[in-house]
Design goal:
By secondary structure, this protein is an alpha/beta fold. It is built from 7 helices and 19 strands. It folds into 2 domains: 4-54 and 196-264, FAD/NAD(P)-binding domain; 62-192, 3-Layer(bba) Sandwich (FAD/NAD(P)-binding domain), CATH 3.50.50.60. Strand 7 (128-134), helix 4 (145-155) and strand 8 form a beta-alpha-beta unit. 33% of the residues are buried.
């Protein structure tokens, strides 16, 4: 398993470019006043780009908001650290990975988690009966669905589609589905429904995601507000890679709105190399037209070469964003 430091970057490279970085918590947006409300006071703007990412809607899973210790998942930093601790202390038994309804951040992620847990426990000599309980009718993203099922069959991972978890009963170590079925576990990693920050809805920008034009990323309600990435209602995959290109495209149209002449960025596309083990990765690629319609997709089986490509892909992505 990797260390936290391997995926941590500083804002130093942004400051070097003359970008002012303010570390504060934003609690609200006042679009009619061109103002945001933050813990360090209000900030006025001429143009606003929102990229707040995903909020975990714990409140949609009964007992979870009141008992966060019942669960640990890798879609948040604290949960990642806690899940690692639980994995290292696991002595054997039933392992359940619960997947929310699409769209959610990093579609291959839950299935990668199941595969890597299987490998980790096998190498450690720990007996683990792993199940993937999926709200969706097939593994995500759809072009990889059959390939995931083939991998699960080879690894003897049980796949349970069309099972939306609505409650976690930590006292009895059970998940309850929308069908009323109870699924027992000894180790669980439940990914709650993914939604945007509540302030987006409260500001009238959309629900559950910011409603924007898929080409310009401009709000459909406020002409000087843009939203990109996981918080935006767009047809693109909710991934770091597409978020990067969404940001570049939004910046292009924001700059044009401010009167600048700027080079048009590359169209939105996504490429990812989901792990099936520490030695192999699959390939998934998607390309979209300017209006958000899917142009083409490509998918390929697990290969060692793709594992190597993933390492280079991660490094290049982080370097393009943070300079290191």
């Amino acid at each position: 398993m990797k260390r936290l430091e391997d995926a941590t970057r500083s804002y130093y490279s942004l400051r070097e470019k003359g970008i002012k970085v303010i570390k504060t918590e934003v609690g609200g947006i006042l679009p009619e006043e061109n103002k945001i409300i933050a813990s360090k006071g209000s900030l006025a703007y001429n143009y606003l780009l929102i990229s707040t990412g995903i909020r975990m809607a714990d409140e949609e899973i009964l007992q979870l908001s009141e008992n966060p210790a019942y669960n640990a998942h890798t879609w948040e930093l604290e949960g990642t650290i806690e899940l690692r601790r639980r994995i290292e202390n696991f002595k054997g038994g039933k392992v359940v990975v619960s997947v929310p309804s699409a769209p959610f951040k990093c579609p291959p992620g839950p299935y990668e988690t199941a595969c890597l847990l299987d490998e980790f426990f096998r190498k450690k000599g720990v007996t683990a009966d792993i199940s993937v309980v999926d709200s969706n009718d097939k593994p995500q993203p759809p072009p990889l669905a059959q390939k995931w099922l083939t991998v699960f069959e080879k690894k003897n991972i049980k796949y349970m589609p069309n099972n939306k978890v609505v409650e976690i009963d930590g006292a009895n170590k059970q998940l309850v589905t929308d069908k009323g079925d109870k699924i027992g576990y000894d180790l669980v990693t439940l990914i709650p429904p993914n939604k945007a920050s509540t302030m987006i809805k409260e500001s009238g920008l959309g629900d559950p995601f910011a409603d924007v034009d898929p080409t310009t990323f401009k709000s459909k309600k406020f002409g000087n507000i843009f939203a990109t990435g996981d918080c935006a209602k767009v047809p693109y995959t909710k991934s770091a890679y597409t978020a990067m290109y969404q940001g570049k495209n939004a910046a292009h149209y924001a700059a044009m709105a401010m009167g600048y002449s700027v080079k048009e960025p590359a169209p939105i596309h996504n490429i990812c190399y989901p792990y099936t083990s520490s030695a192999e990765s699959m390939l998934i690629r998607a390309d979209w037209e300017k209006d958000g319609k899917i142009a083409k997709t490509a998918a390929d089986d697990p290969k060692t070469d793709y594992r190597d490509s993933r390492a280079a892909w991660e490094s290049t992505l982080l370097k393009s964003l943070f300079g290191s």
